[in-house]
Write a structure and sequence with these properties.
The protein is α+β, with helices and mostly antiparallel strands. It has one domain. The protein contains two helices and ten strands, in the order αββββββαββββ. The strands form two sheets. Strands 1, 2, 5, 6, 9 and 10 form a six-stranded mixed beta sheet that branches. Strands 4-3-7-8 form a four-stranded antiparallel beta sheet, with no helix packed on it.
Length: 167
């Protein structure tokens, strides 16, 4: 009788542990590989300020058209190991831009920038996706749920020189 009670307790504990395991695995980020209608063009450009130490970066552009579903709200973009919020310009709500700063063209501020980079890397969460250099993942909200859409084969367009940091 005592061994039957022990087996029952062990079985019950096993079921509880299995339940917690399944709950934690359901939090994995799943990617939506279906096509989002209305995405017209996705590309990126590198930029460098025209002044020494003025900074540099990569801007990722996602151009949508009128076929883009109304219930979808783009949030963030994951690209080359980093994540930023997507932004639009006040005069062009169909163009989403992710602004990624890089460490190139930082002459004269190397020590300060290196310290800031280390601090940012420690504070920024690791991105949960394995991506190639020409791939990104867009985080968006649809019907109150966070979804992820992977975009592959992003085209690199010509580098843009700027006289100062772009806004």
């Amino acid at each position: 009788m005592n061994s039957l009670k022990t087996i029952t307790y062990l079985l019950f504990a096993f079921i509880i542990v299995l339940g917690f395991y399944n709950c934690s695995s359901s939090k994995n980020n799943t990617l939506n590989f279906k096509t989002l209608n209305g995405i017209e063009e996705v590309y990126y450009t590198s930029w460098a300020a025209g002044v020494k130490g003025g900074g540099s970066g990569i801007n990722v552009f996602i151009n949508v058209n009128s076929a883009f579903p109304k219930g979808i709200e783009f949030d963030s973009i994951y690209f080359r190991g980093k994540s930023v919020k997507l932004q639009t310009k006040p005069n062009d709500k169909e163009l989403y831009i992710g602004y990624f700063k890089t460490n190139a063209n930082t002459a004269g501020n190397e020590l300060l920038l290196d310290q800031e980079t280390v601090k940012e890397e420690k504070e920024s969460p690791k991105i949960p996706f394995n991506l190639k250099n020409n791939e990104c993942v867009v985080s968006y909200i649809q019907d109150g749920k966070r979804m992820y859409y992977k975009i592959t084969d992003i085209e690199e367009k010509e580098t843009t020189p700027y006289p100062s940091t772009p806004q």
